Structure prediction request, 227 residues.
Amino acid sequence: MSSDGMTAEQAELETRTIRDAIVEAALPHVPFDGWTMKAAAIAAEDAGYPRETAERVFPGGVSDMLRHWSDLSDRAMLAEMAGRDLLAMGVRERVATALRVRIEANAMHKEAVRRALSHLALPQNATVALGNTLRAVDAIWYAAGDTATDFSYYSKRALLTPVYVSSILYWLDDNSEEFADTWSFIGRRLDDVMRIPRFTGGLKRLLNPLSWLSGGRGNDWEPRQPA
Prediction:
């Protein structure tokens, strides 16, 4: 227990709450100030904290902020997907829906996404960029009901990663009404993936509702809840 009477779990939750508030408050400033600690300090003040709080909760600077923003977006997607009737959807529709919800989580902040990608494209930020991408893809699969622990865990994420990345890049330049072109693009890319026999066969066996009735691995399925 810390000196202020909080347990480690409570302190961690409080820190995450502060980080959430600062990142959300920073988004309107990013188009003007970029992903900078200046924007973070202004956002901390906007969120009702002292400006120096930004450096305290993001000791790794902008990379910490972008890592947390990605996590915040993943949690928003998981929360939204948990309220969907996934049992009424096929595998492809679940994944497509999760991808769409993940992108829509930041639909109002295209410029912030663009600037984040520019920052993460720098060689020194490659580790953060890769980590954010892999965690997002993993969250999408969990949201779609995947509980695999065997080799297919890795193969499915490897197949979805380029779909996820290319979909975000496509969306950034999409000016169609309600991003209709992006959702069509996602559908086409997933159709390509689902044509891979080894992938689609194993995936359908894993997530086919009929397998639950026969004692298949899907009988303990439920979307991973936000932490």
In short: Residues 91 and 151 are 18 Å apart (CA to CA). Residues 87-220 form a domain with the Tetracycline Repressor; domain 2 fold (CATH 1.10.357).
